[in-house]
Write a structure and sequence with these properties.
Distance between the termini: 28 Å
CATH class of the largest domain: Alpha Beta
Strand content: 15-25%
Order of helices and strands: HEHEHEHEEHEHEHEHHEEHHHHEEEEEHH
CATH architecture of the largest domain: 3-Layer(aba) Sandwich
Structural class: alpha/beta
Radius of gyration: 21 Å
CATH superfamily of the largest domain: Response regulator
Shape: globular
Helix content: 40-55%
Strand order of the largest sheet: 7-6-8-9-10-14-15
Length: about 425
Amino acid sequence: MMKMTWVTAAAVALGAAMTPLHAQEKPASVGVGVFTFTSGPAAAYGMPGKKAADLMVDQINKAGGIAGVPIKATVVDEGQGTEGVIAEYRRLASNPENQVMIAALSSSNCLALKPAVEQLKVPTIAWNCDAHQLLADGKSNYYFRPNGNTVTEFAAYALYLLQKNPNVKRVAMLNPDYAMGHDAANVFSATLKAIRPDIEIVANLFPKLGTANFQTEVSRLLAAQPDVVFSALWGADLSNFVRQASPRGLFSKSQVILALGETVLQQNTLPQGVIVGVLGDGWWMSPDAQARPETKRFVEEYKQRFGEYPVFPSMKMANAVIYMKDAYVKAMAANGGKWPSRDELAKAMSSGSFDTLTGTSTIRKDNEGMVDQVIGTTVKSPDYSFPVIGDMVRYDGKVLTPPQGEDPMVWVKSINADLLKSLPKPGSYK
């Protein structure tokens, strides 16, 4: 299947717009619900997603919208809690002008929304929530995830660690106490032990989401004397942990892996040598991203508009919007240029590959996206006032995604040294 960038897609869509259409077949606007955190500690992660959605919608609308139809986005704050999120989803879905939902950031919210998504039959894009359980039953017809899942993401960190430090013996983990944090701990440790069963987990800590004081956790990590500390903390929790752990020497005494560490690079608090990544391929400075003129334009406009560079939640949201736009183009092409229904749009989302700002995403028949994983270590840069990612590797997402229909954790436990040897080495992605 031919792949197209969103710029190419815009040209195709505008061509389709010239096909004669009856007025009632084309709406005045494309209603889209965008769910993210705009309040509370998680807004440190959620607001970059909102900013990216705002920018992408503006760029698309300035270019003529989708087949001449502007996008009208309604932002819903996930900070109100799961019950409120579900209520807002149902309210927006009851209006036929809202054809698509981009929901949500929180894995817990995505899992809670799934029954409503399938019941109301609204094409819904899981722009960030990575819980591998979301699509594991293979029965979703309206929920789509173009950005990867926790198995692919956290297995990649374990493999990168074993490539960088094959002699690691003692590992400690610090993850938030909810679905994603427990998934991160389980996948990371299971991957390590599948290849190195002798590795010892010397601490497995789960602070509450929204923790402000990590001094107790830092003390326990220091006392455990691990070779490696792995953490999937994010948002304000991650910022607080880094600020409190650095002065106490944790980063100098252990190899630290911050799975979502790219989001705090611009805070200039991370030392060199910390393993970080972007839960996918959404590093705007990667070779693939830098090779795309549309990505450079997005980054420049983002920096000019918001006073900071995008972080990977920004790129995930931007790629979700591109996926939505690409689906409209495909649906209209299959429908003789006519505006698609929700069902026709869902069908267009259900398979194929599309180019993103940072690479390519392939959607399987179970609506799961297979996305490459970019990981590296922090290094100083002569061009920026904050550390960037060096010693990078790009793992093929198809290789690290469990086969459709197979139990994800059973698959993780089947990983062996042959897979490790087959992967590209750190530093090979330049």
